[in-house]
Amino acid sequence: MNILFLTERSDNNVGVLNYHGLEMAVGEIAECKWAGSGWTLHKNGESVTDTVKRVMPDADWVVCPRETLIDVAHSSFKTCIMVTDLHGKWNWGLNTPMQFAETLNKAGYDIIFSRYREVHGCNCNPHLFQQVLGDKFKWLPWSMDKDYYYRFKGEPEYDVLFLGSVHPNIYPLRHSIITNLAEFCQKNKFNFHTSTGIGVPVWEAKIDQLEKKGYPVGMNYARLLGKSRVVIFGNSKFKYPLQKNFEVRAAGCLAMSNAPAGDEELGFKDGVDYVNIDTQSWQAKLLYYLQNWDEGEKIAERGRQLFLERHTHEVRARELVEVLNNAD
Length: 328
Prior knowledge:
With about 325 residues, the chain is of the alpha/beta class. The chain folds into two domains: about 1-145 and about 310-325, Rossmann fold (3-Layer(aba) Sandwich); about 150-310, Rossmann fold. It is about 35% helix and about 15% strand. The protein has helices at about 15-25, 50-55, 95-105, 130-135, 170-190, 205-210, 220-225, 245-250, 265, 280-290, 295-310, 315-325; strands at about 1-5, 30-35, 60-65, 80-85, 110-115, 135-140, 160-165, 190-195, 230, 255, 275. Helix 1 crosses helix 12 (about 315-325), helix 8 (about 245-250) crosses helix 11 (about 295-310) and helix 10 (about 280-290) crosses helix 11 (about 295-310). The longest helix is centred in the C-terminal third of the chain and has 18 residues, at about 295-310. The protein is globular and about 65 Å long.
């Protein structure tokens, strides 16, 4: 299979680093070329059709840019796009899930891969995208490099790690945690580390620049995970299976969070590979597992094993190629 990626090069971007790893894994099992922004073969201002003719005229599939809406309804080649958040696309002027779904449908993509399958917290049908897009809509959850985070695993320095956005309307569980975590840890003599943002939008943030400034991105983030027993977080009011679910398991840490949508299909099981929490229970459960770390460590180990079996880039690349192979 020949695949032309027109996606932005993302190996130095905080928000989309894991897209790069997935694309490289696809390149191991298919014939691929890259001509998106940041790649040597990219040419500014060139149309998709002209890029295909110049770079890979025999492409079986063209993976379109993630952040640029392109009308490919009349293309002579097959196209797909990868999207993430389903509750809107503000840089496209789309403020609701319905607007986003309908726009994707009209654009003419043959396949729409989405990191998330359902959208909650928006007063709409959680399965709206399946309804509007039908068989073109394919769920492709996040995946991770099998060694990137785990390479720093060693003797823990922190009992509890909390990293991420904490807007109370979007992340009510995280807001509850960050409001009370310091007092909780000090009272129970647990070592902890927290950080609640990097100061710039993650989709624009450059890893090398922020690493040098000490921000928890890239290798700095991986080291923090490697030094921690428990990583505690929430999956937002949208119930998305966010990247953190996979990063924490990849690092071999104990994940404590609320259940994301699609948890059963992902293999996530409370008390087996993670600990399910809410605003009322997180303190009691965190205390229990840190005081009974032999149990917590076993759950963390099973989380790592689940990741290796089902959520590495290699696994997801095979799933992606299978979808493309089976598409009409």
